[in-house]
Amino acid sequence: MASAPGMAERSYSARSHPLAPSSPTLAGVSPAARRTEASSMEALPMETQTATATPVSRFAFVIHPLSVDHIHKHYPWARLLPDSLVEAVAARMPPMYLGPITGGRSPLTGQRIEGLLFTLGATPRQIMGHGEEFTYSRLLAAAKMAETRGARIMGLGAFTKVVGDAGMTVARESELPITSGNSLTVAATLEAAKQAVVRMGVKDLTRGRAMIVGATGAIGSVCSRLIAAAIRDVVLVSIEPERLAALQRIIEEETPGAQVVTTTSSAELIGECDLVVTATSAFGQRVIDISQCKPGAVICDVALPSDISREEADLRPDVLVVEGGEVVIPGPIDFHYDVGLPPGTAYACLAEAALLAMEGRFEDYTLGRNIEIGRVKEMYRMFQKHGFKLAGLRSFGRYVTDEELAAKRALADRLRNDPQELVRVKAGAHAKLAEIPPMSKGVRAEAPSKKAWWGALAAAGIGVGAFAVLRYRRRRISSTA
């Protein structure tokens, strides 16, 4: 494996599974080293099997609420409290087991997989607002819970893989192998972008131009390198000029002849780009001005939470905004929990952990901010091997229909052929954009009175107490099941 800097290659064996035979204590040795030491030990099956049954391979995955609205959805009583208080209290809760993911099966090998879904309580704003250890400690607690339940690898979702060193510290301290899921996220995003561009009528994107916003991030940087190899004319956007310059040098070395422009703002060049990929962790900022996009442009928004709102997208009905690649896991997969996607559909970062479990690759696969292109390509080969599929193109939670695509193509053609109308459309959309607040990726701003705060704190105490009782009862039920 291509390890993250400073980390030895590691794999997980059944030594750390609770059903495995005990081994001598390795005092003073890190969990990573103990995993390597244990790799020579014979693995036990994950569960009692019949002679003909295929052993189940288990993985874990950690999510968190993308905004305070997600907390309201599952705890309606929280709507009675100030949003900022709900967000702050939820962030301090320990990780919680949400339930199983069942039914996954490889059509090629017959390997069965099951997932364990965990959640932290923090929104992106809370995760980024606290120190790194705040999230690390909760992820390590989730890893211990997952290991106790039989997981052999754990994936990180949304901002849990953005904070700090993108999973490296958690992997070093955890008994379980860790993966950020970013290798499959990149592969699925690029495949979704390619399909979207083709369906918008572009016959030869190699003659077009692409923009990557958030180009120096973990996902953005490898997307930039792969897109530059295919299209050869790219605009890289980031607020980190030094890292932009370094990325430009890498691309020019890897792809001689590539035309690479770097900038700290998308505003000047977005009107020239056929494809825009956004992959930022921006807060309270306008990532792009969609009103100025090229007619018929495709925007692939891979960020979680999203970089672009539905209100922004509605300003330019000729532009197609699609979500980053989402994946259908083979088998009658059942999440037993609403993750905000259609039945059987998973975010690519979750699907990476599931795919590694199906392949039997219990190792730290994708970590840190320097994703290896070789890993992305290997992950895509495994994706095809085991019958994983890219879900249909989705935009703001809905599948995009052929009729909608046809309407966008027709409007884009009209704007291309009428420059004066395009100028009017851009000006009108830009004026309306000023009335739409940027995506906050957290809690709404508010300033409750002292009286409201005291009432809210009392209600919060009752709510947290009820939550603790429910959590205790769930543990009791789980322990006796």
Describe this structure in words.
The protein has 481 residues and is of the alpha/beta class. The protein folds into three domains: 45-181 and 348-389, no CATH class; 184-326 and 392-433, NAD(P)-binding Rossmann-like Domain (Rossmann fold); 450-481. Helix content is 39%, strand content 14%. It has helices at 31-38, 68-74, 83-91, 124-129, 132-148, 168-173, 182-199, 218-231, 241-254, 310-313, 348-359, 373-385, 402-416, 419-433, 450-480; strands at residues 56-63, 96-105, 112-119, 154-156, 178-179, 210-213, 233-237, 259-263, 275-278, 298-301, 320-323, 326-328, 345-347, 389-390, 394-395, 398-399. The strands form four sheets. A six-stranded parallel beta sheet has the order 8-7-6-9-10-11, with helices on one face. It has a five-stranded mixed beta sheet with strand order 2-3-1-4-5. A three-stranded antiparallel beta sheet has the order 13-12-14. β2 and β3 form a beta hairpin. The longest helix has 31 residues, at 450-480. The radius of gyration is 23 Å and the shape is globular.
Task: Give descriptors for this structure.
globular; 481 residues; alpha/beta; 3 domains; 6-stranded parallel beta sheet; Rossmann fold; single chain; disordered C terminus; 5-stranded mixed beta sheet; 15 helices
CATH A-level architecture of the largest domain: 3-Layer(aba) Sandwich
Low-confidence stretches: 1-29, 36-52, 441-460, 477-481
- Return the CATH class of the largest domain: Alpha Beta
Radius of gyration: 23 Å
Order of neighbouring strands in the sheet with most strands: 8-7-6-9-10-11
What structural class do the secondary elements suggest? alpha/beta
Number of strands: 16
Report how far apart the termini are.
38 Å
Q: How many domains would you count in the coordinates?
A: 3
